[in-house]
Specification:
About 30% of the residues lie in helices and about 25% in strands. Strands 2-1-3-4-5-7-6 form a 7-stranded antiparallel β-sheet, with no helix packed on it. A hairpin with a 5-residue loop joins strand 1 and strand 2. The longest helix has 21 residues. The relative contact order is 0.17.
Length: about 190
Amino acid sequence: MLKNQVQQLDKEMPLYLVEKEYMKENNISFEENGGNEKIENRFLGAYIERSNKETDELIATESDSFLSESISYFKKQKAEFLYVESKWFHIIAIDAVSLEVDDVFGTYEAMLGLKLKKNQEKTIKSFLDRELLEGEKKYNLMFNQQDGLWDLNITLDAVEGFEETNTVGEVIGSLYQFIFHLLVEVEKT
């Protein structure tokens, strides 16, 4: 699955480091054209909206410039969450991601629907347990029978490299790479 997605991506645009590493590890040829720019630039043109957590009411549809906003914006605006759709998310088996600050714990959270089979639970949990940094609340994973996908909430503070000074774009790029590595793990099983 991932192999086909990345090969198709290679035809459309330069690959980023995480994708090039995957191609090399699997002895798959690819175009060695560029790809040294920041991964968060891939999400330029994404659909971005800020909404109220209580009511889901749309506050604003944002332009690409919001990707340069510090993720700490959501510490100041705890009543808001960010919803992002990108045409590149299909590569990592998701449609969209929501980002917010948890009202109780004050941690940064990412929520997404992961399009993986129910029987892959053990591999998913093993990856998350191994890759997320120690902490009280790291993730919540539940299979949604109705949608046929995994509802995954990740505490971003537990993702290696996450900093409160990161931009929204950097956080989305890091999350993309994290989920990409999860899919590589699932593909091996």
